[in-house]
Amino acid sequence: IHSVPVVHGDITGANILIDEGGQAKLIDFGLSTIVRPLFGQSHLVVTSIHPGAIRYAAPELLSEEVFDLPLKKCDIYSFGCVMLQILSGRYPWSEIKSLKPEFPILNLISQGRSPQRPGGYPAIIDSDWDIIQKCLQLRCELRPSADEVHDFVVHRHSSSGQSVSFKFVVDC
What we know:
It comes from Suillus luteus UH-Slu-Lm8-n1. GO terms for molecular function: ATP binding; protein serine/threonine kinase activity. By secondary structure, the chain is mostly helical. It is 31% helix and 7% strand. The longest helix has 17 residues.
């Protein structure tokens, strides 16, 4: 997605659909931001500065500190949460069993915590957990770039004998 100047702002498992060809499609751009000219437009478009699902929201979106929006690294954090969910079958912060998990999650984030590696089956292999941890860094400048994440995913799939390709398509 970051090959074009768009920050999605609400990457969650529920906002990724798989088509009949097995290709992932990112949906729900309601919280997205255009960060530089796109298709001839020359202005910044910010639809919202409020985070989407708390379980997937980058810590900087949940703080009261002022920072320059938008941050592509917020999507990287959310991608790490989605990767955690896909590989473990559990939501980020699944250890929180509250009916209203927002407050306990905010409390843990304020303490500098991030989602934990779930135990059990399916197990997350170490190389996958390493990239997830990098994506879930509390300080956004420590998170990998979209290119680094892309390279990991391509390498991961090629080493498993599967092929993977990425392209950004705007379907209207």
